[in-house]
Write a structure and sequence with these properties.
Helix content: 25-40%
CATH class of the largest domain: Alpha Beta
Number of strands: 9
Shape: elongated
Distance between the termini: 23 Å
Radius of gyration: 26 Å
Oligomer: single chain
């Protein structure tokens, strides 16, 4: 819990003030006591011995008030008396850029404790929000490095070049016409891999990697971090785009969690099975018609003859079965979970679940546009990870503060 140590003032009136009330709520909701006690046992930061809790609060305020770099955090402390009071500083003894920069290095050395703060907030949300963690979305977004990637020796040695479809960049990207070559955009920096709750649009786990790291390799680590065995709500469905389309991912999600992987399949011509199933995995009957999904029986999918259920006319000269119920096919899911997932792709349920994937696009927009990851000013993957952690911590702490006050409509609110 954040302990406010500031010059004498009317604390009750201060809490009611709209200018810094949200900052106070975020700091109070942050389970950072273990981290702060560890930092306080170390040597102080700066010649004047700046207060560790105040330095932590200043960085959190910088994220919440959309400061682009540490210099703007210093200017925020100088011009805003109320923010200084919350952080516990007076105008005559404010930390400078170098002091805050050294404090950031301290956080890098205690990245595990910063990660514990994140995990603690996610655990708190599991207790406060009904159904939190049942339906998750996975995706990645770009983080441009604070460095020129075209130089022979870039100033950020950990950053790499990455590429994605231009359609994933945002509304500014031009749409690709049919027949055109795949339009890609490139960036030098990192990838933020996120696992997000689809209902509440809040992060559950994250990983920062160089930009050239493939998305598909990060699904397992994200799930291991974000879905503990003791979670009160089990995972029901995991949504992702085609970047996560691999047999190993499908099999692992279904076998380890009993969840439905809602991922489009890459419809490569050379990988089609025309006499067995169509491009989306729906089995076909002997005359070439797509069979009708008729529900799931445990670890099996049940399909019926399309003519028997009035969904088509059989062109075969001889009937496939004498039964009036029609031919029935039962497919074991584990035999090929990528082609025949627990929720078939051509069902209304699959389409309804896949629409929830847009939740992560909104989270990416908030964490980059509102919480500063669109323009970072630190170098090295360790510092970039800490900077990312601060943004996500502010997002989660704001949600916890709203949920604890039963302001359900404001759970997603970050800034006024």
């Amino acid at each position: 819990m954040h302990i406010i140590q500031a010059p004498l003032f009317d604390f009750e009136a201060f809490i009611a003030d709209k200018g810094t009330a949200r900052l106070v709520m975020v700091l109070e909701a942050m389970p950072a006591e273990k981290l702060l006690l560890t930092l306080e046992r170390e040597r102080w930061t700066g010649r004047k011995g700046y207060w560790m809790r105040g330095m932590w609060a200043a960085l959190i305020a910088g994220v919440l008030y959309q400061c682009r770099n540490i210099a703007e955090v210093v200017r925020l402390l100088k011009r805003d008396k109320e923010v200084r009071m919350v952080c516990g500083f007076n105008k005559g003894c404010l930390p400078g850029e170098h002091a805050l920069g050294r404090f950031l290095k301290k956080l890098v050395r205690h990245a595990d404790l910063v990660e514990e703060c994140f995990t603690g907030l996610v655990g708190r949300l599991r207790q406060l929000l009904p159904g939190f963690g049942a339906k998750l979305v996975v995706d990645s977004t770009d983080i441009e490095a604070y460095s020129n990637g075209h130089e022979e020796k870039p100033s950020d040695p950990d950053a790499r070049w990455g590429a994605k479809k231009a359609s994933n960049k945002g509304c500014g990207a031009q749409s690709k016409k049919k027949g055109d070559k795949e339009d890609l955009y490139y960036w030098f920096g990192y990838k933020l891999h996120l696992l997000v709750d689809a209902l509440y649009e809040l992060p559950v786990s994250f990983i920062v990697t160089p930009a050239n790291e493939a998305d598909t390799t990060q699904m397992k680590p994200l799930l291991k971090k974000g879905v503990p065995d003791h979670a009160p709500m089990g995972l029901e469905a995991l949504m992702g785009d085609k970047a996560y389309d691999s047999q190993d991912n499908y099999r692992w999600v279904f076998q380890e969690y009993g969840a439905a992987p809602i991922i489009p399949i890459r419809e490569w011509p050379e990988a089609q099975l025309p006499d067995i199933c169509n491009a989306k995995g729906t089995p076909t009957c002997s005359c070439g018609l797509a069979m009708v999904y008729w529900g799931r029986d445990g670890k099996y999918l049940k399909y019926r003859c399309p003519q028997a259920v009035g969904k088509g006319k059989c062109l075969s000269r001889s009937r496939c079965t004498a039964s009036p119920y029609g031919y029935v096919l039962k497919l074991p899911i584990m035999q090929d979970p990528r082609r025949h997932p627990p929720v078939p792709r051509e069902t209304k349920k699959w389409k309804r679940l896949y629409k929830l994937r847009t939740a992560i696009e909104r989270v990416n927009s908030r964490v980059k546009g509102l919480l500063g990851l669109e323009h970072i000013s630190v170098r090295g993957i360790a510092k970039v990870t800490i900077r990312t952690s601060l943004s996500l911590l502010v997002m989660l702490a704001a949600a916890v503060a709203m949920a604890e006050r039963h302001k359900w409509q404001e759970v997603r609110t970050l800034v006024g």
